[in-house]
Amino acid sequence: MITLRIVILGIVLRIVRAGFCTESYDCQVTCTKTITSYYGCGWFWASRCARYSMAYSLCPGICYKDECCSGYTGASCDIPLCDGSTTCPNGGTCISPDKCSCPTGFSPPFCADTNECAGSSHGCEHECRETDGSYICTCKEGFVINSDLKTCTEECGHPGNIKDGTVSLTSTLMGGIATYTCNQHYDMASGDGIRQCQSDFSWSGHEPTCKLANHCESSPCLNGATCVNLIGSFRCECTNGWNGEICDNDVEPPMVTGCHEDIHVNATEQTIEYSWTEPQFSDSRGSALEIVSNYPTPEFTFPWGDFTVQYVATKISNGLGVECSFKIKVRPTPCGPLNVPINGARLCNGWQTDYGRFCMIMCQQNFTIGPSFSYSMWYVCGASGNWIAASPVPDCQVPVDSENEGLFYQPEYAGYVFTQSCQNHDTKSTLQNLYIEYLNGTAGFSSFCTTYGNECMKENVDVQC
Question: In whole angstroms, what is the distance from residue 129 CA to residue 136 CA?
Answer without folding.
Answer: 5
